[in-house]
């Protein structure tokens, strides 16, 4: 099998040319404590999950909203916990504190800082992809760029600044939220497989004049 060549970095221009990725599984919007309990019961059967969170953007200086949404995804099921409606319930806290379930995300320090403002808990068994990708030679730190390097697909960011406390989440918001958690899991699973097989190599640095040529060609 041909070795996978891992780029160290990727340009925004290169990502724009890639096909857009989409979440292929089922998305469940969780808006009650009972729904949260059922969702967590399923997620606790998974050894590894992807996680992310969304907060309503504030356009007023000094005003910050509490985290509105927590996304937790298996490979084919994603649950969107509407924390602005339910709060951070005990079953969700139990999942975050469970040492037997690996939680994979990106820039997790920021996510947990926001979640801790809703309730105290001690997260366990967490993997931050910004640290995890370094041994593979990947220098980019954004989810969009890491995913582009590994899968040659584009994660759309068009919904990032939408209202995550809206009465009803749009289909676009649900897709965006699910993809961010699911993509983290996809990245981790692929890197684990590459680590196991050793079937990859880090791309050589591109000379400066070649970089300029590539940019001018576009």
Describe this structure in words.
The chain has helices at residues 12-16, 33-43, 83-86, 90-97, 108-115, 129-132, 143-151, 171-197, 208-217, and strands spanning 4-6, 26-30, 48-55, 67-73, 77-82, 102-105, 126-128, 200-202. The protein has 218 residues and is α/β, with parallel strands linked by helices. It is globular. It has a six-stranded mixed β-sheet with strand order 2-5-4-3-6-7, sandwiched between helices. The chain has a two-stranded parallel sheet with strand order 1-8. The chain has one domain (4-217): Ribonuclease H-like superfamily/Ribonuclease H (Nucleotidyltransferase, domain 5). It has nine helices and eight strands. Helix 7 packs across helix 8 (171-197). Helix content is 39%, strand content 18%. One of its GO terms (biological process) is nucleobase-containing compound metabolic process. Residues 27-196 form the 3'-5' exonuclease domain. Keywords: Exonuclease, Hydrolase, Nuclease. GO terms for molecular function: 3'-5' exonuclease activity; nucleic acid binding. It holds the Pfam family DNA_pol_A_exo1.
């Amino acid at each position: 099998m041909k070795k996978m060549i891992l780029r160290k970095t990727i340009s925004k221009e290169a990502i724009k040319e890639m096909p857009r990725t989409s979440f292929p599984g089922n998305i469940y919007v969780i808006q009650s404590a009972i729904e949260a309990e059922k969702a967590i019961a399923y997620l606790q059967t998974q050894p590894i999950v992807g996680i992310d969170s969304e907060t309503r953007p504030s356009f007023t200086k000094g005003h910050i909203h509490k985290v509105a949404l927590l996304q937790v995804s298996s490979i084919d099921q994603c649950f969107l916990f509407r924390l602005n409606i339910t709060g951070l319930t005990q079953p969700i806290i139990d999942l975050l504190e469970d040492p037997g379930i690996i939680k994979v995300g990106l820039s997790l320090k920021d996510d947990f800082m926001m979640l801790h403002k809703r309730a105290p808990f001690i997260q366990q068994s967490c993997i931050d992809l910004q640290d995890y990708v370094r041994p593979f030679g990947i220098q980019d730190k954004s989810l969009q760029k890491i995913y582009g390097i590994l899968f040659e697909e584009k994660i759309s960011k068009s919904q990032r600044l939408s209202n995550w406390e809206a009465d009803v989440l749009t289909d676009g918001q649900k897709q965006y939220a699910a993809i961010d958690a699911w993509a983290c899991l996809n990245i981790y699973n692929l890197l684990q497989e590459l680590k196991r097989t050793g079937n990859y190599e880090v791309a050589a640095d591109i000379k400066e004049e070649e970089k300029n040529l590539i940019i001018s060609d576009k």
